[in-house]
Amino acid sequence: MALGLDVGSKTIGVAVTDEAGVCAHAVTTLSRRGTIRDVETVRALVAKYSIEQVVVGMPYELDGSEGRRAERVRVFYEALCATGLRAELWDERYSSADAEVALLEANVSRARRKELIDKLAARVILQSWLDAHQK
Description:
Blueprint: E1 2-7, E2 11-17, E3 24-31, H1 35-49, E4 53-58, H2 68-82, E5 87-91, H3 95-105, H4 110-132
Parallel strand pairs: 1-4, 4-5
Antiparallel strand pairs: 1-2, 2-3
Helix pairs in contact: 1-2, 3-4
């Protein structure tokens, strides 16, 4: 199983795969509490869901470069890797926009969209990674 993360400055959206590794499902949104504590929380989720792979959304700029947001995500990613977790960066440039479109199409209220957007963006990231790795 794999865990997908949409790492923001205030929250981290979380998604997991099904047991067959075919579909990603939004799970939760974590409030950021600092890199060390956030990594501990992710490690607890890895244990809870028997995760083998962590996929971290990387917010590249449109030209493919790494901006300020990407630098912060890289710090988090490197802290995850330092604990021995198997992690991979994955391009997330349009994940939040895709999640927002899905919520708008479902006629979800603005307040509810704000509540759901991060974990749905994590689902988009993880599903994209799954689709690219299908055999």
